[in-house]
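User: Show me an example of a complex going from sequences to structure tokens.

Assistant: Sure. Here are the input components:
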Amino acid sequence: MEKLYTKNHNKCKLVKAKPETVEFLLNYSKSLKITKAKGISFESNMN
Amino acid sequence: MEHQVEDSLLIKRYIDGDERALAALIGRHNQRISSFIYSKVNDREVTEDIFQDTFMKVIRTLKRGAYSEEGKFLPWVMRISHNLIIDHFRKNRRLPMFEGADSFNIFSVIGDEKLNIEKQIIKDQIDSDLTLLIEELPNEQKEVLLMRIYRDMSFKEISENTGVSINTALGRMRYALINLRKLIDQNNIVLTN
């Protein structure tokens, strides 16, 4: 039997965003306030 | 279908002020969206950035009350990330500049293989239409099609990752294509470039 020196790379990469990124998004959401006045929405970040 | 109902409930709760609903939505779709982005950009850090920008856009849209319930949540988020991926590649595209003399035109030697704006727009439209159509496929067919076409995996790798035989994976791919053609016919979509 011939010896194979090549590695079988599995191209399926299941990745997930880091917990820090998720945490940032949750904090961003909590701090974001949207105020509507005369049909215009204003974004303000309470951070 | 079950997922869709749950997503819409979570969105409603989030719009009503329940921040935990957002955590649940992100947690539920994190892997799928991250893997989708990674399959296009092939860079872990860029994937994080695009994932973050995608959800910042999602958060702003939901909080503004601008989200329409008509579409499904996941395809909508995928579309946002898809557009951000295109922006990323556009920003990073290096454009070499040449100044040709009258007697010599550099473009007679160098061919322009890139699509012009019109063709790029058509291609983007086809890509986004296809993304939506693929979402309509049954899960097992969709999974095989995404792995084969978007992640360029062999059927052997697909069978290893999905736990089915190569023949089953081949069959699912075949049915996925048949069903996609049916969907295209049913929706009178013209996919040409």
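The lines above are the inputs; the final block is the predicted structure for all two components together. The first strand of chain A starts at residue 32 and ends at 37.
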